[in-house]
Amino acid sequence: MIMSEKIDTCGEILGNERLAGNCFRLQVTVAAGFPLPRPGQFALLKLLRGHDPLLGRPLSIYDFDPANGVATFLYQVVGRGTAALSLQKKGNEIGLFGPLGRPFQVPEGASRLVLVAGGIGVAALNLLAREYGRRRGCRIDCYLGARSASDIIGLEQLRSACDQVKITTEDGSVGEKGLVTEILVRDLTELAEAGAHLYACGPRGMLARLAVMLQECDSPCQISLEERMACGLGACLGCVVEVKDLPDVPYRRVCCDGPVFDIREICW
Amino acid sequence: MIMSEKIDTCGEILGNERLAGNCFRLQVTVAAGFPLPRPGQFALLKLLRGHDPLLGRPLSIYDFDPANGVATFLYQVVGRGTAALSLQKKGNEIGLFGPLGRPFQVPEGASRLVLVAGGIGVAALNLLAREYGRRRGCRIDCYLGARSASDIIGLEQLRSACDQVKITTEDGSVGEKGLVTEILVRDLTELAEAGAHLYACGPRGMLARLAVMLQECDSPCQISLEERMACGLGACLGCVVEVKDLPDVPYRRVCCDGPVFDIREICW
Amino acid sequence: MVTKGSGVFSIVNDNLNMAVCIGRGLIIKNPVMTASGTFGYGMEYDGLVDLSRLGAVVVKGLSLKPRAGNPPPRITETPAGMLNAIGLQNIGIEAFLAEKLPLLKERNAVIIANIYGETPEEFRQVARKLTGAGGIAALEINISCPNVLKGGAAFGSDPKLASEVTIAARDATDLPLIVKLSPNVTDIAEIARSVEQAGADAISLINTLKGMSIDVERRMPKLRNIIGGLSGPAIRPVALRMVWEVVQKVSIPVIGMGGIAEAADALEFLIAGARAVEVGTANFVNPQATLRIIEGIEDYLRRHKIDDINDLIGSLAV
Amino acid sequence: MVTKGSGVFSIVNDNLNMAVCIGRGLIIKNPVMTASGTFGYGMEYDGLVDLSRLGAVVVKGLSLKPRAGNPPPRITETPAGMLNAIGLQNIGIEAFLAEKLPLLKERNAVIIANIYGETPEEFRQVARKLTGAGGIAALEINISCPNVLKGGAAFGSDPKLASEVTIAARDATDLPLIVKLSPNVTDIAEIARSVEQAGADAISLINTLKGMSIDVERRMPKLRNIIGGLSGPAIRPVALRMVWEVVQKVSIPVIGMGGIAEAADALEFLIAGARAVEVGTANFVNPQATLRIIEGIEDYLRRHKIDDINDLIGSLAV
Ligand SMILES: Cc1cc2nc3c(=O)[nH]c(=O)nc-3n(C[C@H](O)[C@H](O)[C@H](O)COP(=O)(O)OP(=O)(O)OC[C@H]3O[C@@H](n4cnc5c(N)ncnc54)[C@H](O)[C@@H]3O)c2cc1C
Ligand SMILES: Cc1cc2nc3c(=O)[nH]c(=O)nc-3n(C[C@H](O)[C@H](O)[C@H](O)COP(=O)(O)OP(=O)(O)OC[C@H]3O[C@@H](n4cnc5c(N)ncnc54)[C@H](O)[C@@H]3O)c2cc1C
Ligand SMILES: Cc1cc2nc3c(=O)[nH]c(=O)nc-3n(C[C@H](O)[C@H](O)[C@H](O)COP(=O)(O)O)c2cc1C
Ligand SMILES: Cc1cc2nc3c(=O)[nH]c(=O)nc-3n(C[C@H](O)[C@H](O)[C@H](O)COP(=O)(O)O)c2cc1C
Ligand code: FES
Ligand code: FES
After folding, report:
1. What does the pLDDT look like over B189-228, one tens digit per residue?
2. Helices (H) and strands (E) in chain D — how many of each?
3. Who's near C268: CB < 8 A, 6+ residues apart?
4. Which three-class secondary structure state does DSSP give residue B224?
5. How many CB atoms lie within 10 A of CB B190?
6. Is D21 a catalytic residue?
7. C60 near C207, Cβ under 8 Å?
């Protein structure tokens, strides 16, 4: 049962450096008992001093090194919590609750995976690429969108895991100019025919456009969603998204029913 | 005018290490414009992230190196604020508002100073010892009380500045066994006759006993008091102590009327 | 060894009595319970918290029928606190009894059902059904939810309505009846007295303070519901003051809550006179907060050489 | 260039209008004032804050005669907040007029006197004397102090008493009359309406929330007065919600406060509909908080291309 496969622990910061713009990479040592995270899972990160900021912040587990017990996160500074996180130094302690959430599902025998990452969304997809990139007979194409060349992060890791990485930037400073969905849409029919499974994470606008695009074809697509969270384990009902076809209570919890959902399940 | 001779600034932590038991020494670089602190003055130290802990914590300026712009504090961990302070590492930033408060007054021509320090109270007296210890014709005796040998801090500095340091410990592990006031009382008549000026800082119980002892003689005695503070500059009226002979409002503010008071002024 | 105090006790290895009576003879093994809405239906914390170690598990507010709750965003953080406008989303009592209660019983949890209704009559019905089901130790009636249009806090801010709802629930149950008060009132002791007279066995407080937060970049409320309930350490001083006011005016047990995050916080409420405490938002910050608080209280009692927690309760020196 | 909005404006280099009217034609150069009791008599911040840059300086509550206030300890910190029980220690109006007012005038500060009385009659007398003295821009009457036995919050928690006090002060002054409300009530909008009807020119809120804190090691209240007033960031969501409730029910200007520490916090209140804000506890944490907030609001207006702050006020999209 997935429920008990999470622990509330704390770790020491090994590194916390700016990668590009307002994006940082955080590396934390974790306790020996930290369960192996599955692709798409996340952790709640908590600053340990005082009651402000109060709640943990959900970050996807970007990478995990079980041998050395090191978890890596990529994060963007968008508010108080992430700003406070960015001030932490090597040697400071940090709270870590995880791994949390339902991971991406890759059906037995899937031979073609397509990853669609917008901005910091790459953080949720990296473990998937690394796990399946090593499998024989499984091809991975990655569509990576960013605002500008300087905002692209995590490219090396993706390149080493994927068969192809197509880059788009909104300002055209590298790769094709445009939105990642605009590039993807051209390949969609071909990908659908090839039986591709899509996995996407990015801004809500990107996912909503993807949802519209996918009305035309029947490629399966899993997405990782974001919502503000408190408990991270399904108790507070704070993180819900509206879903289709649930009569009494039309909501599901991002923290434990997700963060991975079938794109067709969500009300956009 | 003393009012404007204070700045609200922030500095980088150069060191923050445990000296003994729950006592730490904190060294902070201060901005070039930081006014030279006078003996007995303090600063409000503020952690910069988040709103909890909220208020600055008053700490006496233990030492100050104007050439390198380094302020040193000695502090004891007694609650949330000081505990949070003790977790700060070299390189972290910290807020500093000061120098604050009225300093000790040493009358022109005073030739005999007696310092009475209980526990961490030594922090308030060190600058005084260093300033007057260098003066010709001014003898300084120091009575230093601590719980136990391992709790004694700041001894080296005091020894180098004072003509004599008498140590007492409650458990007798070093120096004489007993309370610092019990040792002092034996010398009091002699000191009074020698025209000594007393300067004391320590737990309220120690100061109250001293006040009783001093009813018998007329040696002048200035003490440094502690109270919880908010503003540090006289505006909030949070830090008051009850004083004698003030008809309408029998209170004075520790932050700006003090922290140095004439011992005979206070209602014990 | 015979423990002093109220006579309520449980034997643990070092003769420390942590057991308290929270009304109508209900003795719980220690005074630390979970606050409704912050611990789900209990099983969410399975594997992290041994539910049988808690004084009691108070489950998410239950209504007669399932409720969808409010549209998201439902929560936002504030300084040392959070706002929520869940709007009492819940699976309804039928599903609770069928799916959740059996699991909780298996875990040997003492279960308290928090209930909600839009009318006194609904409170009566919910109380009756839960009482009939068996396996529930007490009912906590929520007359103080700030996040629903009907009922909710309206009942909690008027002594007469509060009393009506209490009478309706009292009428339907022999279980210990805890009435949970709203802090958004001028005189909470007055409401407390009126629910005591109406037959409550205990009073719990506080529910959340009504609050609001605005996203200044978008000039929109941070919560879709505009207003939400403030909880967490920020509200602790207000909660403690209200508990203090209420314990002086009623003679039934008072259960304190609001911002309890550590043992010292729980001790403030006990010393002020609360018979037990509920831990809410802290569960989100530290899923094992309840257990740490229980251990911290035990340590405190040992350190202060107090054998029976009942000797600590209400021992504030004023 | 003609600015849009209320027509109230002051010309600054980049045509940004920060001036607002806070009632009875009183226009202040920007909407940031100090909150009473947190800025002394103003001169305590001399050398740190150029008082003439502030919208106004609201001084510590003044009474007819000097008041000793409560015995210490008077303050204690709480999560993201603090409790105070100063008990309105003040030098009295005579000493204020003789010793403090001249200095404030020299600094070109806009001065608002916060006043307190034990009876409506005392409020009337204080209002009359201060009005007669000249040099005071407005009066803020404090019917909401939680830390005094007589008067204080009692006036603020009853619409009838609140109205009586307002009438008494109104009767004695032609100055803009701001009535400062207590948040410790069930329905703050009701009190607001009644003081508006009684002749208030503006309403300010919130004063502190009543709170309490206990030293568990000594089992004693942390404040000698047992109960104190909670202020600071912790209370901001409650304050904002109350301002939002009040602006919808009155037509006179509302001055918001409670936990404002940064420009973004002040903007929340303005967007919710407050005409101006007061900054309190933040002055303790950062003595230059008011100036930083003024600058931060100006930056925000430029960034959002808003020429006149009056276009921002009340612009919440709901
Ligand atoms: C499952 C999951 C995985 C995530 N993984 C990553 C990741 O790997 N890297 C990364 O940079 N970010 C990730 N996020 C988003 C991240 O959690 C938020 O950016 C962060 O919590 C914001 O905190 P803050 O205090 O800095 O911002 P706040 O001051 O709280 O808010 C700033 C802005 O961000 C919005 N926001 C706040 N919390 C969230 C949230 N949980 N989700 C979406 N928007 C939010 C607010 O509405 C506001 O507009 C993830 C979110 C979820 C739910
Ligand atoms: C002018 C002045 C100079 C000081 N100099 C030093 C110094 O050089 N080194 C040092 O270690 N300490 C010094 N203190 C005391 C120090 O300020 C307090 O110990 C500290 O603020 C406690 O903060 P906390 O959050 O750790 O404790 P809290 O959790 O706030 O309180 C813990 C205990 O300390 C008491 N306390 C809190 N604040 C104060 C205070 N300001 N004064 C006295 N008791 C308090 C509380 O009542 C409580 O019992 C000084 C105090 C003043 C007023
Ligand atoms: C997310 C959330 C949901 C809540 N749901 C309920 C509820 O269903 N019924 C209820 O009586 N109280 C509910 N509450 C209030 C809590 O039980 C508690 O009274 C309040 O949060 C104060 O305690 P705390 O500060 O420890 O969280 C809820 C609180 C939160 C934060
Ligand atoms: C130490 C202190 C003293 C105060 N004294 C007064 C006062 O004399 N008159 C008054 O109307 N309000 C007084 N207040 C209340 C503040 O003006 C303000 O309403 C409250 O603190 C909320 O704002 P804040 O959170 O920004 O501090 C006082 C507040 C504090 C903290
Ligand atoms: S974060 Fe609490 S239910 Fe998802
Ligand atoms: S700390 Fe504010 S007056 Fe002394």
Report:
1. 899 999 999 999 999 999 999 999 999 888 999 999 999 9
2. 11, 16
3. C236, C240, D213, D214, D216
4. strand
5. 9
6. no
7. no
Angle at A138 between CA A137 and CA A140, to 5 degrees: 145
A181 torsion bin: left (phi>0), alpha (psi -120 to 50), beta (else): alpha
What letter does residue B65 receive in the DSSP assignment?
Answer: E
CA nearest to A8, candidates A55, A43, A50, A41 = A43
Express the helix, strand and coil content of chain A in percent, nearest 5 each: 25, 35, 40
Q: How far is CA D273 from CA A205, C218, C229, D265, D269, in A?
A: 31, 15, 21, 13, 6
C38 → closest Cβ in A228, A232, A235: A235
Closest residue, chain D, to A52 (C-alpha) = D80
Residue pair D1/D9 in contact (Cβ under 8 Å)? The answer is no
What value of ipTM does the predicted structure carry? 0.95
Question: What's the pLDDT score for residue C81?
Answer: 98
| Residue D233 structure tokens | 């960031």
Position B43: which residue type? A
**Which among B9, B221, B189 is positioned nearest to B106, based on CA atoms?**
B221
Q: Enter the pTM of the model.
A: 0.95
Q: Tell me if C92 sits within 8 A of C115, measured CB to CB.
A: no
User: Distance (Å, rounded) from C-alpha A123 to C-alpha C104?
Assistant: 37
CA distance readout (Å), D159 to A234, D126, D210: 44, 22, 19
| 3-class DSSP state of C95 | helix
Q: Which of C144, C158, C185, C186 to mutate to test the interface with D (most CBs of D within 10 A)?
A: C186
Angle of helix A180-193 relative to helix A204-213, nearest 10 degrees, comes to 40
Reduced to 3 states (helix: H, G, I; strand: E, B; else coil), residue D146 is coil
A155 neighbors A123 (Cβ within 8 angstroms): no
AA letter at A81? G
Identify the sign of the CA torsion D182, C240, C46, C144.
Answer: negative
> Is residue D233 within 8 angstroms of chain C, CB to CB?
yes
What pLDDT digit, counting tens, does each position of B96-148 carry?
A: 999 999 999 999 888 899 999 999 999 999 999 999 987 778 899 999 999 99
Cβ-based neighbours of D167, under 8 Å, separated by 6 or more: D120, D198, D199
Which positions in chain D touch A50 (Cβ < 8 Å)? 79
